[in-house]
Specification:
Elements (H helix, E strand, L loop, with lengths): L1 H18 L1 H32 L4 H9 L3 H27 L4 H6 L7 H10 L8 H36 L4
Helix pairs in contact: 1-7, 2-3, 2-4, 2-6, 3-4
């Protein structure tokens, strides 16, 4: 009886948890788009500065890094911004237009810790009132229920083996 209640609780926990993925992934995608937009503005400014100096951006950053300690730090910061812009733009390109099921398949593209943390900080769970939410809830229920069922079956098997060692022969 207790095992049934616990496996049901595991299923419900999985359902509630996984049903939130479509909303979380949508909010992540919105934040990712905002981050890419802002980094795009910064990148355009760097390109304009390089063009004003009559240089290509990689050459501009390289020359800047040779000017001294402060300039070297600034050049490193610029390169970090450009690398992040490239990485986030690629992830956004992969995720744009993808529905919740495809975003689940492409979850590896949702790996920016800064964007994910800010999304999670502001995330408010929602009742999944869509087909996708219901599918994720059902999958979460089955995963949670089955996971706990397997754990309890394994533990019961261990318990049975352990108690058989201590039984006296009749």
């Amino acid at each position: 009886m207790i095992v049934r209640a616990l496996t049901l609780a595991g299923g419900l926990t999985g359902a509630v948890g996984l049903s939130q993925f479509p909303e979380f992934s949508q909010q992540y995608l919105q934040r990712l788009g905002g981050a890419v937009d802002e980094l795009g503005i910064i990148t355009q400014q760097y390109e304009a500065d390089a063009a004003a100096a009559g240089m290509a951006l990689p050459d501009y950053i390289s020359a800047l890094s040779q000017e001294g300690a402060l300039s070297k730090t600034q050049a490193g910061n610029m390169q970090a911004h450009l690398d992040r812009y490239s990485s986030l733009s690629a992830a956004l390109t992969q995720l744009q237009g993808a529905g919740p099921f495809m975003r689940a398949r492409l979850a590896a593209n949702m790996s920016d810790h800064g964007v994910a943390k800010r999304t999670l900080d502001e995330f408010k769970p929602a009742i999944p009132a869509t087909f996708e939410g219901a599918v994720f809830a059902g999958s979460g229920f089955l995963g949670g229920w089955l996971g706990l069922k397997l754990v309890f079956a394994f533990l019961a098997g261990l318990w049975g083996s352990a108690t058989s060692l201590f039984r006296r022969p009749a």
